[in-house]
Structures are given as C-alpha cells and as structure tokens.
Amino acid sequence: MIIKQLSVFLENKTGRLSEVSSILGDAGINMTAFSIADTSDFGILRVIVSEPEKAMKILKKNDFSVNLTDVVCLICPNESGALARALKILKEEEVQIEYMYAFSIDKAANIILRTADTNDCIEKLQKHELELMKASELYKL
Amino acid sequence: MEKCKGRSDDMLIIRGVNVFPSQIESVLLEMSETEPHYLLIVERHGNLDTLTVQVEVQEQFFSDEVKVLQMLSKKIKANIESTLGISVTVQLVEPKSIERTAGKAKRVIDKRIL
Which structural domains are found in chain A, ordered by start? Predict the structure, then answer.
C-alpha cells in the first residue's frame, strides 16, 4: 500500500521543470500525478511515476537532488462530501497530513497523502474501510 | 592573535565590513549539511550593499518537506551572520550547479558599480 513518490529539488530558475520532464520522457517513464511546492527560492517537485527507482537513478545521474518518499493513495468516490468524510476520519484518528494532492480517473478521485507516519496512516484508513490504491496498480496507470 | 582570514586582495567591503570569502567557506565546512561550494553575489540596491550566498545542498540532506529545507536555510544564514556580523541572504541551489573551475575557483560575483 505504500507508494514511492519521487521528490526532486528544483532551483527557482526557468527551464528546470522542463529538463526533469524531458529526462523522464526520454527514459520512457510515465508520470501519473504531480504537484509542486514552491517557495521564493526553490521548488520541490513531487511526482508519481511508473518506475520510481529507475527514475531516481536517472535523475541522480543528471545531478538532481532526488529522494523517494512514502505516500498513500486514497481512492474516494468522485462525489460531493467524499473527501470531507475521509478527512473527518483522519481528524478523529489524529493523523497529521503534511501535504496532499489529487487526480481523478473515471469515476474515482485519487488523493495522494503524505503523513508523518505512513504505516500508521494506512492502518487507520483500512480500519475504517477506506479504499487504498496498491502501488503496483498506481504505477501502471 | 586572530587566525589569518585570507588574502587581502580577496577581501570584499560590504556596508563597511570587511568580508573574506574564506570565512564563509569555513562556516560551510563546519556544517555537515552543506558542501563547501558557494557563490557570493554582491549587489547594490540604492545605497545599500547586499550579499547573497548561494549554497549547494548535499544530496542526502535534501528533504521532501519545505519546512525542513527552510530551517536549513535559516541555520546557514544564522551561522554566516554570526561569523561575518552583517546580514546575508541565503539561497539553496541544486548540487553541482555552481561552476567547478580548475585552479582558482571563482567565488564572487560583484555586481556593484563603484
């Protein structure tokens, strides 16, 4: 259930994101979802790719600062109130969210969650029978 | 007697304070999170000189979380400021993005028009 997310340090300079995407594209790695955290000096690209280990190796070879972060992918029905219900459970279980972003496929909204303790978060979500996406399924999208 | 700070012809005068690039290098060397690769950019805004220090982050200290990187940047800033006695701006940059030159390294870009 743990999903490896690729995190890349990006300088605040034009063309950095373009370089990352073309390196990954040339290597035949597909991106499923991504988000960027930006500050005044730098950005952090967080991306779900088809082959995280391979992507990390290639980016490292190209002198990028990269690491793999454990995240969870929660599947929500694409309807109003679904996210609120899921977040209420997390609130009641006192799971602290560091950041999250979402993408949708067909009828489902998928939410990538980064919490302080990933295993603990998975356990609590499963206890409440929330649907989680398997890493193998997500990488294939 | 104080330790020798560096060559006098490397010295920069920023807001009336003598700054040796080697002082910044020694601060960065003392910190395990940073590499001693840095670039100093001196600019003049109005009548005020500003010093920007670009520092490469070691790969193993790169974190996915913004707050961790911002804390690192603050720590570098505080350490440099306590050594130099003037305020600086710290910019974290990608590893190996600062030019490596054979022989004497170019560490300072002085954009002031004096």
Answer: 3-68 (3.30.2130.10), 70-134 (3.30.2130.10)
